[in-house]
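WARN retry 2 of 3 for item q-0093 after timeout on previous attempt; input resubmitted unchanged.
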Amino acid sequence: MKLDILAIGAHPDDVELGCSGTILMEIKNGKKVGIVDLTQGELGTRGTVDTRQKEALMAAKVLGVLVRENLKMDDGFFQNDREQQFKLIHVIRKYQPEIILGNALEDRHPDHGRAAKLISDAAFLAGLHKIETKDETGKLQTAWRPKYVFHFIQDRYLVPSFVIDITEVFEGKMESISCFNSQFYSSDVEEDNEPQSYISTPEFLESVVARARMMGKRIGVKYGEGFLTEKSIGFKNFDSLIKVVT
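OK item q-0093 returned
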């Protein structure tokens, strides 16, 4: 299955927090989108591998993505090495996305920046014909390099290269985040006696909303999601940059 966009996150819920609004907008515009989680988030303070997997599948259903895979790399310890690069090369060639959305280039969690570099390197290497990978049937995969890799902004504030207007689908973004009951605060969930974490407080979700408002303000809309790019973006003409803000 060829996808238009592949969103890749180090942990289940990274994609929801970072770029789920953009995913919803692109699906609304007819694009085919999938998600790949690098790890199962097994080192997370709260929840289990099983609960997080169920939550990830619920969130995928809310977003309407066509596929969601987990590569089961080691949470906290995966490296940008040959073994992990080949895992990602295989997935990139499998889905042949035009655009990849990946983790922040630097962030509070060290996995995020490391994942960003792994994603960028694998996206480049996936286009080299002399690197051979095989699909599930043993057939050689075709080399494929996405046109762009964009990095969503996570916990730390980074000045975005560009911002996507997600005002129309902001409620859907928050609904996808709320699927991760084990991780984030919910007034509907009784006390679970698990330890409090950095992301499980009401204030954390408030910061997600505040960030979306701040990004939206940069482009004159209510809610936005910011992205960084390591590669220059080209346009055929200035008309491509013009949008109407009401």
